[in-house]
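User: Could you check the structure of this?
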Amino acid sequence: MVEFYVVFEKDNAAIQGCDYLDLMLFSRAPFTQLLTEAGFQDVSDHVGFTPEMNAIVNESLPADLQEEWSEEMCNWTEPETAMAMWAVLRAAVETQPELFNEWPGMLQEVNETLDTAERVFQRAVDRGARWFIPSPGF
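Assistant: Sure, the predicted structure tokens are below.
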């Protein structure tokens, strides 16, 4: 199963702590619509490549298709952006719980994932650490 785990620019281990955070849940409906309607990018739009990932991809490409890695390829995002995204989703959970009934226990899973995301990203805010989601498969 594909995961959307998060990498932080600095203090990654301290920011993650003992929390396991997979943002894949938020890359589908109704989350994508809620975020885009609020003016945010979809969670999947925060996927990026490290220099090491780019090197692996380049190894499999002909020289004329290889790309030199640049900082923009990581797709770094400020942690405050994520906190604002979680606030949008939290408000929807509280005001529109009927959106989260696709499977038994979905609302509880959403609440637990939001609790973890808010806790982890608050540590990122406290440390001023940008984040991105490494491209799945690496």
